[in-house]
């Protein structure tokens, strides 16, 4: 179970076997992706026999769909967590960026995992996410940006604005390994760098979009 970090171990210590399997599967899938993962690796990581794993999840694909859906739901929460806010759109952008960094710093592998799986299995990913979650993204963040452009609160193409904000947030985590090698920093220093970048991005959003 060494692939699951200590915090996760503490959180699932008193949980049921299914939760334990999903935590182990998330750890292995994030490291190896769907194609590179074997069920035996997940069973070993969870500390259970493969028969027990099959009792809860009949095959790797079903387990992957559950793990990926939960991972994407976290992205969805970042986007729409402020949907009821009456704040100006620039403040909403900053709220989105702050939430994104807070969640991604805790689990920096999620963004690269999602990007890789979308690239390698586009049809499968589309079926998983193009339901209520993806509709919620379109109704949420993009809706408020479109409204702000219409009202003259900000200027530009709403889709380009949304891509810019998401890219500013997601890229440092998707490119974690590259950044660490480029600047010769370990995980602890990378986390400090991302905390600093969070403050930098919030200031940058203010400068770019504030009228």
**CATH architecture descriptor name of the largest domain:** Orthogonal Bundle
Stated plainly, the CATH topology of the largest domain is called Tetracycline Repressor, domain 2
Distance between the termini: 51 Å
SSE order, one letter for each helix or strand: HHHHHHHHHHHH
Give the % helix.
over 70%
Percent of residues in beta strands? under 5%
Structural class category: mainly alpha
Average pLDDT, all residues: 82
Radius of gyration of CA atoms, rounded to a whole number: 19 Å
| Domain unit count | 2
The tally of strands reads 0
> What is the CATH class designation of the largest domain?
Mainly Alpha
Question: Per the principal axes of the C-alpha atoms, what is the gross shape?
Answer: globular
Largest sheet: none
Number of helices: 12
Tell me what the structure shows.
The protein has 2 domains: 6-58, Homeodomain-like (Arc Repressor Mutant, subunit A, Orthogonal Bundle); 61-209, Orthogonal Bundle (Tetracycline Repressor, domain 2), CATH 1.10.357. 78% of the residues lie in helices and 0% in strands. The protein is built from 12 helices and no strands. The longest helix has 23 residues, at 187-209. The protein is globular, with a radius of gyration of 19 Å.
